[in-house]
Amino acid sequence: MLHSGLNNxxxxxxxxxxxxxxxxxxxxxxxxxxxSKAGDEAEVATFCAHVVELxxxxxxxxxxxxxxxxxxxIPKLDFLNLSMNPLSGIELEPGLAEVFFRVxxxxxxxxxxxxxxxxxxxxxxxELEELFLCLNEYDQVxxxxxxxxSLRLLQITDNQLQEWDEVRKFGPMYPGLQNLVLSNNKxxxxxxxxxxxxxxxxxxxxRSINLNNSGLKRWEDIERLNFFPKLEExxxxxxxxxxxxxxxxxxxxxxxxxPSVSVLNGSVVTEGERExxxxxxxxHYLDFPExxxxxxxxxxxxxxxxxxxxxxxxLRPRCMxxxxxRWGERTETLxxxxxxxxxxxxxxxxxxxxxxxxxxxxxxxxRELGSALGPEEMKYGSRALHSYMIQDGDExxxxxxxxxxxxxxxxxxx
Length: 414
Prior knowledge:
Keywords: Leucine-rich repeat, Repeat. By secondary structure, the protein is α/β, with parallel strands linked by helices.
């Protein structure tokens, strides 16, 4: 069927039975097989009559004529992966490209294919929906005079695009674009003289954009994403702009800047999260000079008013407390570690009260509530003291186990 550089597939094709020919899968993966030529056209047509998806990645194809021969003999071809084939500088003649007219998904990752060839392909694929151009070392985008209105997804990650003037060229070329994946390009800005009018026209159908690991450094660039009229999903991880903030701060500030985005970095934005983020946004800018406040701040202040800073409340348990420890007729004030357990406290009190740890019962008496609630026996040796909400001045009553478990009011008054 398809010839490798060693032409070692001829014997294999001769040995293939008719049954094998008829049962080839609709998804055919031939990656890394050393294929450099199409081989016999009749063989390709026989073997691939029912193939819908063809993966020819990591081969040695470097002649568009050979590729077109393969494609022309696969009548149902919908998906074609040519990634990692050495196609740098090799142009595709427009007359040959007509065989691609059925293809809807085309993968050209790390092929170094030229923009002229890309445009030749898109002109001849009237139903092309997905195009993958990653790792092709593009630092510029050559414009095409003929748009490709059918394209819905363009993935052009891991290239060298830095200027917004290059990215904006995708708008007229692919007017139906819904998903634009630009991650791992060092794009420095989203810059337009009249961003609202221009961006609405450039990408009227864009629903998703991935700018992960780009070079955006200004909040104005994030705010301009609001001018894409149908934008719903955004990925903005690894930006220099967001490095100074914690994960929670990054997400809150970004959610507040993008009111129409319902999915951020793969996670759905709930209404509750959006309100919390918008309130956080207002408080974040409370101490900023008036002239530096972003437009979004004033919009949110008109919605929520000027919010006061949140009070800082430390909910961590106290570490130490001064308690009155009472046993028999004696009382002593001790500074106790509240992170220790009841069992550990009993061991600490052994020498003081002259009782073994397993021979004493402890009762906690809250100073302010003791007369109303009575003593609370500290039954569980593994329970931490701070769980009793102990305060300075509270009491611990130590009673030998030989005495009654019930502590009378006279004991409390002694």
